[in-house]
Amino acid sequence: MQRYKFNGDYRLRMVFQREFxxxxxxxxxxxxxxxxxxxxTMQTRGFNQVIGLLREVSYQPILRTKASSxxxxxxxxxxxxxxxxxxxxxxxxxxxxxKRILLVDDVYTTGRTLYHATVLFKQAGCKEIGSxxxxx
Length: 136
Hints:
Elements: H1 2-5, H2 13-25, E1 31-34, H3 39-45, H4 49-53, E2 63-65, H5 78-82, E3 88-90, E4 100-107, H6 112-123, E5 128-135
Parallel strand pairs: 1-4, 4-5
Antiparallel strand pairs: 2-3
């Protein structure tokens, strides 16, 4: 995971892609939403590691990050992560009304990322929300 996510070895996604995509596709959901990366991360890394895992998965990239954070989540302490303010914006909130949403992330650490995304989707009126992560 370290080599894939932080060292930019995009080919490693193929190690997990088939099985992870199968698990995601087996979920009973209306919309699959990958957790986004900041524009700074995208520029540095060149890819969104979550989207790289989603082979043959129809997803909706309707979750966006606010202005890029100066400190990466991976370098924050647990306490710092737990006090992070809402980092996301939901585009097209009307698309989620009465829908079952599946959030997809690569690593579940403290749960704060999924918490913030869940808050937005619930405020927008989604019917149900679940999540799948590759690692913990």
